[in-house]
Design a protein that fits this description.
Elements (H helix, E strand, L loop, with lengths): L1 H36 L4 E5 L6 E10 L2 E6 L11 E6 L5 E4 L4 H8 L3 E2 L4 H26 L6 H16 L12 E3 L2 E9 L2 E8 L2 H10 L9 H9 L3 E7 L12 E6 L4 E2 L11 E9 L2 E3 L4 E10 L10 E3 L4 E3 L6 E2 L2 H4 L7 E9 L8 E2 L1 E3 L4 E2 L1 E2 L2 H19 L4 H6 L4 H26 L5 E5 L2 H17 L7 H11 L18 E6 L2 E7 L5 E7 L5 H4 L1
Parallel strand pairs: 2-13, 6-23
Antiparallel strand pairs: 1-24, 2-3, 3-11, 4-10, 5-11, 7-8, 8-9, 9-10, 12-20, 13-19, 14-21, 15-17, 15-19, 15-22, 16-27, 17-18, 25-26, 26-27
Amino acid sequence: MPRLVEYSTQSRTLRTVLARCFVMIVLLGYAGEASADGKFFRRLEVADEPGIAAQRAVVAFRDGVETLIVQSDIENAGESLGWVLPLPAEPTSIEACQSMTLKALTQIVTPEFAKPKTRLMIFFLALMGLTIYACLDHVHCKQHGIERGFLISLLALLFLIMISLFMVPSLMGVPAKVAGGDVEILQNTRAGVYDVSIIKAQDGAAVTDWLTSNGFACPPSARPIIEEYVTDNWCFLAAKVSPEKSGNVTHHPLRVSFPTSRAIYPLRLTGSDGSPIQLDLFVIAKKQAATAMMKTWVSERMKIENDYRRFAKYETSRPPIYRGRGFLSVRIGLPDVSDLMWPGCTFTRLRGKLSSRDMEEDLTLDWIAPKDSQIKLHDRNSALSLSAIAAAAAVIFMFPLFVPTATKQRWAWHTFARKRLPITLTTALIAGVICYSALDVEPLKAGTSMHPIFAASAHDKVLRKLANRPGNKPFVETYQQIVDEVEMNDYIQMTPTFEKPGDYMIEATSNGWNLTILDAFYIPSTIAISSNGMPASAEN
């Protein structure tokens, strides 16, 4: 009898300690994550994986015409840069795009980023520990004839669960054609920093010879692919930085339109060197785009946005702006992209890692019924926290199932632990691995989420001060002086090319100046400035 009393006292003491530890762990998890939630100046952005070449492109397809916005993925500046793009038909237009276009799309058309479930993970791990203890305690009591029902232990755990749920957040959101040897030169044109030629031939060797003689490197692995394209009656866009633009230049995208019966993205030539690529494809079409090789990150039906006017009081011109019809708040007003859209079109972002085998054929898009959707991405920490929760849940639900067998055979608690705990933990590990592999895990990086908002607000402050500033100085000098006064140089800068929200340009006109500001959604707004340095609308 004294022995039983001694055990019961020790058991109650141990349970008390464990219960207190459980509550402390949950509270610490709650406090720790609450602190993390306060860091609202950070955001997650998708990071391109090291060692994998990244490509971004826009495909707009409507009424048998495809428009491609593509950019060379080569970073080296200088007149030696050149690239070749196979096309199924001769282009009807070739234009230069702003250098920021494709990068901006990746910033404004984003997936949902999941946060690590730290509190929930700590709760489940603590609950798992208590479950294991309750099971072992029950087996031990049955072996020694101690009457303490297993139901009482489970009810106590259930009570702890109900209490903790109040502290743990829910898991759950065309020129004349000129012959040039065996190669037909369909077009010669200048687009931004590029000299562009459209060529076609009846023989692949003629194309490779022309490329080599015109300064384009043509490795042996590309020659059979070029021959395939020639057999299919395709032509080639050959773009090279103009000698007049050599040096450190921004290699902007090109926008190319051509007739075609199906939307297609050329990949065979890209895959000829055997290296994988990470492809971001933004598709504008009547229906939602899909392909088996890539995941749909975002899909949204678009409508004209009439309500959003960041600088409505001052602006005189702005490109058309489109916004998603559903729950997403995507606004697209990039001039090179929005003029390819129309009310009711569907905007889809596809992303995937393509191997050389995937690129043995060009990417042909399929069409499905439009559906507003947004993928949820996890970084490593978020995925591990959910996997730990899944593993702990497996232990919580599985380990008590072995208790009846252990009590029937009157095992000692350590025998029970030795025989059944390894099986339970192995199963839990498998559950965690399955959970991790089922999640969309991407390399993410932290960014500053508030910069675009601060940049737009900074220009608001400058424009308000400008309206009360006498125009006795040149406008460019006055505007920069006010930027210095409001101490916003870190957010807004005058640049020759737009790169980020807050950038601005000033161009002289016959009646004064045009001030163009890039706002938080990468939408350029132009404000007319009169000859006395005042916004024209502010004078009226």
